[in-house]
């Protein structure tokens, strides 16, 4: 069997594609990597929320899935919108890396907890709003671009630190620049953070789908991500909305914590729900409904007016 793997060209995206390639090759599958540039890679002077969150990093990959130029597209699970177009599906989620955020700096003595004021580069509305909520003494500057670009901007002194996903920092081997691991109950990660998602066209032949699933899918991770993604779908949050959720699985029980924070950080709502691993999507949806009733509906409406 031969699988053509489509990926974005950033160093992190390529790492993820090589990771998937290695898993396939171990299973005796021949592979080929096809690098594809997306709108999100090209447009670097506007925030993601202004370009439009839908498909910024996926559209060009999906065009090639549709015409068969590639068999699968490899994405950071957290970059994927909650609702794919109807002719695509996610057939696998790889084993999740530690999902937390980290503070990255040349000065590894920096700490949000210290009370000291410094400037953090990030353009994630989730991270900015959570910083405003818990650490109002921290200044933020907008910092888009792929990991390499952001690290260069840090180097140039455009900020004192970056706020990033541990998964990406670790994959790029910048662990020695981690100043602080942030708490999951303050910086609850974005939905899907730390896992790699495999997308294909519905029309991909069944034998390929079976092989891909058996070699790439991590059942435990997939159960958690199904709950998180159902949560995101109900809240209709793209990656530009400060919504967060993380599920964990212990035996047959999923625990999921999720919430939303207003853009100025003044209001943060967070809830936890538990339920059977047999019904991950129902659990994610129920958590979202609970939040909507508890004020998330109003916060979401306010956010959508601003973006
Ligand atoms: N939005 C960009 C993005 N997409 C995935 C990761 C990191 C890897 C991951 O979470 O899987 C990052 C960088 C970051 O947020 O620090």
UniProtKB/TrEMBL annotation:
Binds 1 dipyrromethane group covalently. The modification S-(dipyrrolylmethanemethyl)cysteine is found at residue 239. GO terms for biological process: protoporphyrinogen IX biosynthetic process. Its EC number is 2.5.1.61. It comes from the Bacteria. It catalyses: 4 porphobilinogen + H2O = hydroxymethylbilane + 4 NH4(+). GO terms for cellular component: cytoplasm. Residues 223-292 form the Porphobilinogen deaminase C-terminal domain. Pfam families: Porphobil_deam, Porphobil_deamC. Pathway: Porphyrin-containing compound metabolism; protoporphyrin-IX biosynthesis; coproporphyrinogen-III from 5-aminolevulinate: step 2/4. GO terms for molecular function: hydroxymethylbilane synthase activity. Keywords: Porphyrin biosynthesis, Transferase. Its cofactor is dipyrromethane. Residues 3-201 form the Porphobilinogen deaminase N-terminal domain. InterPro entries: HemC, Porphobilin_deaminase_N, Porphobilinogen_deaminase_C, Porphobilinogen_deaminase_C_sf. The porphobilinogen subunits are added to the dipyrromethane group. NCBIfam families: hemC. HAMAP family: Porphobil_deam (MF_00260). Belongs to the HMBS family. Tetrapolymerization of the monopyrrole PBG into the hydroxymethylbilane pre-uroporphyrinogen in several discrete steps. Monomer. This is Porphobilinogen deaminase. It comes from Dyadobacter luticola. The lineage of its organism: Bacteria, Pseudomonadati, Bacteroidota, Cytophagia, Cytophagales.
């Amino acid at each position: 069997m031969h699988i053509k793997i489509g990926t974005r060209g950033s160093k992190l995206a390529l790492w993820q594609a090589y990771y998937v390639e290695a898993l396939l090759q171990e299973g005796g599958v021949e592979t080929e990597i096809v690098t594809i540039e997306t709108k999100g890679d090209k447009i670097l002077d506007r925030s993601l929320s202004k370009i439009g969150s839908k498909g910024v990093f996926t559209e060009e990959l999906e065009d090639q899935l549709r015409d068969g130029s590639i068999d699968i597209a490899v994405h950071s699970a957290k970059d994927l919108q909650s609702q794919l177009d109807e002719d695509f599906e996610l057939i696998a989620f790889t084993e999740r890396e530690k999902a937390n955020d980290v503070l990255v700096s040349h000065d590894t003595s920096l700490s949000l907890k210290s009370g000291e004021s410094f400037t953090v580069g990030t353009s994630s509305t989730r991270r900015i709003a959570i910083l405003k909520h818990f650490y109002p003494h921290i200044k933020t500057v907008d910092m888009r671009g792929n990991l390499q670009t952001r690290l260069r901007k840090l180097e140039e002194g455009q900020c004192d630190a970056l706020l990033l996903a541990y998964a990406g920092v670790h994959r790029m081997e910048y662990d020695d620049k981690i100043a602080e691991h942030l708490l999951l109950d303050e910086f609850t990660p974005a939905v899907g953070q730390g896992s790699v998602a495999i997308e294909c066209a519905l029309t991909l032949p069944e034998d390929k789908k079976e092989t891909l699933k058996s070699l790439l899918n991590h059942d435990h991770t997939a159960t958690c991500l199904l709950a998180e993604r159902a949560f995101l779908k109900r809240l209709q949050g793209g990656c530009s909305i400060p919504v967060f959720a993380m599920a964990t699985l212990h035996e047959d029980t999923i625990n999921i914590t999720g919430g939303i924070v207003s853009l100025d950080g003044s209001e943060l709502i967070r809830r936890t729900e538990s339920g059977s691993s047999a019904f991950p999507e129902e659990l994610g949806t129920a958590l979202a409904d609970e939040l909507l009733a508890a004020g998330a509906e109003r916060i979401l409406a306010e956010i959508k007016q601003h973006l």
